[in-house]
Design a protein that fits this description.
With 313 residues, the chain is α/β, with parallel strands linked by helices. It is 34% helix and 13% strand. It has an eight-stranded parallel β-sheet with strand order 2-1-3-8-7-4-5-6, sandwiched between helices.
């Protein structure tokens, strides 16, 4: 049975506010408690082994400087070191998107730690592991080259892709979060050798609440206007995975906000859906690097993570 190398370091980061599409305050769902549930689900599986990302911190900083604009990183560093409270900066929201994610004290350090987890997971694959899972917090797929949003500050999947490319690997990214990976599309727009596929709820009905189109010939977006069944979703995913079977590694931005009852979702998947999902990826016969994105239904997260890991057993 192939092992799954899971990377996790508790961050203790506290995001104290969040805004809705109208700019009004709403409950903050991006908490350490959700990651604790994901970790618990993975720990229930004997084939999951654990490592820290501490050794990847310096490498993560270097990769981050290549992914993101210098002025954006300088803002994040300065704003997260401030003691005046949350800083919501429209200048660093994606064009046409209402700013929703403030920079709070410690945000930059926590985001760098999340990138370190993604980098460590990528390193595990270059070292010969078959499957790796970066339990990142905060998530990253809404963070573009010079914008934040949707709880995301730095792009974790993009960082993993860069590490693997640097190691000479042909890599692609598949985003299976409820929400569109608009940030990942942005950081990969000038990387034509990295195919990017995002399956998501319609962006007119869910974040980023605007029309989205692929940023380049290497990108494909599959948007669902109505909640798909598990069979429909997996069939659409399978239809688009063909080109990824010819790569060396597939990065999977995994969101558990597809599950029934997620406060940021609206679909009706069960935890068992994620075992079918990971089996579909396993059938590509490619090494897989899972990067944690969304998932906010606390009572179901442990089961979702466990099911996903079981699909790799």
């Amino acid at each position: 049975m192939p092992a799954v190398t899971a990377v996790h370091d508790a961050s203790g980061f506290l995001l104290s506010s969040f805004r809705d599409r109208e700019g009004l305050a709403m409950p903050v769902r991006e908490t350490e408690a959700r990651i604790e549930q994901v970790v618990a689900g993975l720990r229930s599986c004997d084939h999951v082994r654990w490592m820290s990302a501490a050794s990847a911190a310096e490498q993560a900083m270097e990769v981050t400087r290549r992914l993101h604009a210098p002025e954006y990183l300088a803002f994040l560093a300065d704003a997260s070191a401030a003691t005046a409270g949350d800083i919501l900066e429209p200048r660093f929201a994606e064009a046409g998107v209402v700013p929703d994610t403030p920079v709070t004290p410690g945000a930059y350090a926590a985001a760098l730690q999340a990138v370190s987890a993604a980098v460590a997971a990528a390193n595990a694959l270059t070292g010969g592991d078959r499957y790796a899972y970066a339990v990142c917090r905060p998530p990253g797929h809404h963070a573009g080259r010079a914008f934040m949003g949707g709880y995301c500050y730095l792009n974790n999947a993009g960082a993993a892709a860069q590490v693997l490319r640097d190691a000479g690997q042909r890599v692609g990214v598949v985003d299976v979060d409820f929400h569109h990976g608009n940030g990942t599309a942005d950081v990969l727009r000038h990387v034509p050798d990295v195919p990017f596929l995002s399956l998501h709820a319609s962006t007119l009905d869910a974040f980023p609440y605007r029309e989205t189109t692929p940023r380049g010939a290497n990108q494909q977006f599959v948007a669902f206007r109505a909640p798909p069944s598990a069979d429909d979703y997996l069939e659409r995913l399978a239809d688009h995975l063909g080109p990824f079977r010819h790569l060396d590694v597939i990065i999977v931005s995994i969101g558990y906000d597809l599950v029934e009852g997620d406060p940021h979702g609206g679909w009706h998947m069960t935890p068992g859906f994620f075992q079918r999902l990971s089996r579909l990826f396993r059938e590509t016969d490619r090494p897989l690097c899972f990067i944690q994105e969304g998932g906010y239904a606390l009572p179901q997260l442990a089961a979702c993570a466990r099911e996903l890991a079981l699909g790799l057993a």
